[in-house]
Amino acid sequence: MKCDSPAEHRPLAEACVKAIEAHSLKSRVVVECFQLPAIKVLKEIDSDIKTVALFEPTFTNPSVLIDQRIINQAKDAGAAALALHYRLARESLVQKAKAVGMHVAVWTVDDPAWIERARAIGIDALITNNPAAMLSHR
After folding, report:
1. Which site from 31, 34, 41, 105 is most exposed, i.e. has the minimal number of CB atoms within 10 Å?
2. What single DSSP character describes residue 54?
């Protein structure tokens, strides 16, 4: 979900839930969002929809540099997983997330060297612009 203002959270969450239900996709869809309050709204509407909290490093949000804050924010929103910008993918964060039962994906990774790094630190999934290149190196 992409939304810019809090006023968009509920209408967008409702539209997502409606589309997921209309097409019987609940078992196949994962909803991601940078706006964690929007994830929380979606989970209030339908707690069974899988959600992922997206995080990126920014100068305006230094709290994303603290592992436990990231995990707490994601859990508070009801997310079952983290999707981290590759610059945030630290072993300490991945291990702490795993310890509380969260899956971890990293985006956008286009360098095949990330495959070994992901295996080494326990990352569950890599999001890439070039799946064929990544697959040829796994």
Report:
1. 34
2. E
Helix (H) or strand (E) holding 106: strand 103-107
Alpha helices in the chain (DSSP H): 6-22, 36-45, 67-77, 91-99, 113-121, 131-135
**Of 108, 112, 113, nearest in space to 127 by CA:** 108
- Fold category of 6-135 in CATH: TIM Barrel (3.20.20)
* Dihedral Cα 135, 28, 31, 93, nearest 10 deg: -50
Q: Which two tokens stand for residue 33?
A: 């969002």
Residues 82, 41 contacting (CB under 8 angstroms): no
Sign of CA dihedral 129, 69, 117, 29: negative
Reported as a single tens digit per residue, the pLDDT across 117-137 is 999 999 999 999 999 989 998
Q: Are 52 and 83 in contact (CB under 8 A)?
A: yes
Domain boundaries, the chain: 6-135
